[in-house]
Every structure is written in C-alpha cells, then in structure tokens.
Design goal:
Strand order of the largest sheet: 1-3-2
CATH architecture of the largest domain: Up-down Bundle
Helix content: over 70%
Radius of gyration: 19 Å
Number of domains: 2
CATH topology of the largest domain: Four Helix Bundle (Hemerythrin (Met), subunit A)
Oligomer: single chain
Largest sheet: 3 strands, antiparallel
Strand content: under 5%
Distance between the termini: 43 Å
Amino acid sequence: MSIESAVLSGEHGKQVAIEALRRAITRGDLLPAQRLVEQELAESYGVTRGSIRAALIDLSAEGLIERVPNRGSRVRVVTIEEAVEITEVRMLLEGLLAAKAAEAATDEERDQLRDIGARMQAAVEAGEPTRYAQLNIELHTLIRDIGHQAVAADVLGRLNGQLVRHRFRLSQRDGRPRQSLGEHLEMIEGIVAGDPERARRAVYAHLESVITALRATTEPQP
C-alpha cells in the first residue's frame, strides 16, 4: 500500500482528525494560543489536509479552536474566569436536565446510572484519574440524554466543548476525583430515587465545588 493510499480522507478522515485534535488539546499536547498548521497536522494524523480543515471548522463551532482571519487556526484560550462563568451557566442547564431525568428515568436507565457510579468508585479506589474523567463525562452525557430537553442539551454540548481541557486538568489534580465522587453519587441517587429537587440540588453542589476548584487553579494563562 502506498503512502498516499494510506492517508485517510472524507468523513472518516475528518472524524479521526477531530478525535486526535480533541485528545491533544485535552491532554495539553496542544497548548492554548498554539498555532495549528494544517499540513503538519495532516502528516501527524495520517489524514488529508482537507480532513484537517473540516475538523478545525467543527472544533471551532465547539469552542476548542479559534479561527483568526488571515492567520489560520489556533487553540482557543479559555481563561479561568471564563471557565467559571461557563460552569455557572452549566449549573442551571444541568440542574434542569437532572430534575427532568429524575422524573423520566426508566428502570433500565436507573440501572445504567448505578453501574456508572460503581465504575467511578472503582476508578477512584484504583487510583485511575483518567478513567474517572472518562466516566465523569459518560455520566453527565447519560443524564443529559435521560433528561430529554433538546434545547438545554444542545447549548450544554457547546459549552462543555470549551471546558474540556480544564475538566481534564481538574481530574488529574491530587484528591479531586475522590472529592467529587460523593457529589456524583448523590446526583445519581437523586435521579434513581425519582426526586427532581434532590437531583437538582446535587448538581448545584457538584458544580459549586467545580467552581471552587477552578478558582484555586494556579495555571498561568497565555
């Protein structure tokens, strides 16, 4: 197989590029304000330059990438204060979705929530913060889906894209997964119990804790 034929293109190439770029931004391999050169990225990820360009457009819509006129694309800078403001909006939307999930959850969905909670607890006990971070996203996504509020879910999805690097860094902070585990388990219990107000309060308490952790962040901003 030639090098040319091994290069991915089209929708598949774009999706490969999106996942690779999102992962690199999340883990800090690509830093805030770093310029993104399409040809270099295409060679690194084994996709066409067109796939990279399409991926950058999609990630720009998510708030991860900033496209600067006549200068190309760069990793978008989300300051701590902006992350706090986004989290304050998340609080309202996720509280709404959790309350609706408490009203609408089926027995199967309650079992799914309990299962994620058990896996989160196991990840904390095993000292696996990256696994815990993945399960954290899985839990919030499931609650969003159970809540069946399309407008809130759409806005929330775009907001969360902008926070992905901050959320990952918080999950790697010593003691943070164990601290947030109880908050997540209380969210699950509120929904499983069919108690909308308990679920809403649990979300508020969790995201207040996230805001406190963000404000304690000493990461220098570019």
